[in-house]
Amino acid sequence: EMEKIGQELAGRLKGGDILCLEGNLGAGKTTLVKGLARAFKIKDDITSPTFSLMNIYDIKTAKIRRLIHIDTYRLKNEEELLDIGAEDYLGKPDTICVIEWPEKIKGLLKNKKIVKMTIEHLPDGGRKIIL
Predict the structure, then answer these.
(1) CB 59 within 8 A of CB 40
(2) Strands of 95-100's sheet, edge to edge?
(3) Which of 56, 32, 53 is nearest to 44 (CA)?
(4) For the chain, what is the largest distance between any 2 Cα atoms, rounded to a whole number of angstroms?
(5) What pLDDT digit, counting tens, does each position of 23-65 carry?
(6) 3 neighbors 34 (Cβ within 8 angstroms)
(7) Which of 40, 42, 31 minimizes the C-alpha distance to 100?
């Protein structure tokens, strides 16, 4: 289900967008990114960048050239993202960035084009998605 939502969402995102995914562990954030990647015809294996902090995927469309997947769950401070060059991609017109746990890097997201999505687990096992 989350992968399908990601595929549908891909058609609504534009270059320069930063999709901020908020939700508990296991909410389906990375699975949603897999759906985005599938829609952009990315063939790479999509995994969470929990330890690497950032994964970069090339897209072969005319307007959007890269999908950047950032996971700040284990981030100590914003400086760590700056050290790996993440700021070079945030808001870039030929790039879509997806950030898991964006609340940890609020300072880097100021004055950027943010699309916020919250994924909540429901007591019945379902999910509530707020976009």
Answers:
(1) yes
(2) 54-58, 66-71, 95-100, 18-23, 114-121, 127-130
(3) 56
(4) 43
(5) 888 888 999 999 999 999 999 999 999 889 999 999 987 789 9
(6) yes
(7) 31
